From TrEMBL:
Superkingdom, taxonomy of origin: Bacteria
Protein name: Replication protein B
Length: 92
């Protein structure tokens, strides 16, 4: 399932000891695309070599790192089982 793939890709446990650049280099193309799209970057940035994030002149680097931290946070507590039950149905 796509959610499981993303949960596995953006697990904080996977990041331990890896720099942001190294971490991004380990992502698959589809996972890296998810990261770039979450950062609201375009195909133009996605198609550039990702090693450019090591350059200070890389204008999309901060957005990419912010998106990476957001995805780590988002998937840290993502539920294992997704249901179609609306929250108001089980909060009462």
């Amino acid at each position: 399932c796509a959610i499981d793939e993303l949960r596995g890709a953006f697990s904080k446990r996977r990041q331990v000891g890896a720099s942001e650049y190294a971490y991004i280099s380990f992502l698959t193309v589809s996972q890296r695309r998810t990261l770039f799209m979450h950062a609201r970057l375009t195909e133009k940035e996605f198609n550039q070599p990702y090693w450019r994030i090591n350059e200070e002149s890389c204008y999309w680097r901060d957005a990419l790192f912010r998106a990476l931290r957001e995805l780590f946070s988002l998937f840290e507590y993502a539920p294992t089982i997704l249901t179609s039950v609306k929250p108001e149905q089980y909060l009462h």
